[in-house]
């Protein structure tokens, strides 16, 4: 399976659109692969905000019967065939996908996604990262995933909550050159995942070091890491 196909499977499992066999297979793989487990956590975090915006609604009992009738109806001899145009959904093109959703409860995030597809909305996907790094703590546990983008945007996804004293803050660092000094990418002031942007650095490269340290409020006073390392790891180029 390609990395892009795995991303699709992960998203389908998270939003409840995958078959039971696919869910079981992905969970088994994630249990053995910390990188895959981290990607699964990222997908859950990505869709969590959308899920929280959707009210749970009861599904009309005749919903799928009405959809089937519409999808399987044949145009009459006198009815002109519509010409596809911008903003018009070809129902035959989504028939196979719709049939996969029959067993899913059309509530929460699933309802929002179905409506988005039927209305022809485009789901915005972030750019592919140039590198990905899994940061490990002193115990060897994965604590964060870092995705370095070609435009020097860095997406930091925390995989577990860090106990940082109130007078300290998490600061993210990288070493664009192995023989150069660490460079600050920014602060995680709220102790939550966020996207950081810094200008003037080269495109991230494989084996580039990333780490998160605990620093005084406001960040390191020396512009170099001074506090304990909460997590660190070397970047890898993702398989696209």
Automatic annotation (TrEMBL):
InterPro entries: RskA_C
Membrane-crossing segments per the record: 105-124
Pfam families found in the cross-reference section: RskA_C
A cellular component term, taken from the record's GO annotations: plasma membrane
Keywords annotated in UniProt: Membrane, Transmembrane, Transmembrane helix
Domain Anti-sigma K factor RskA C-terminal: 108-229
The protein's name: Putative anti-sigmaE protein
Organism: Tropicibacter naphthalenivorans
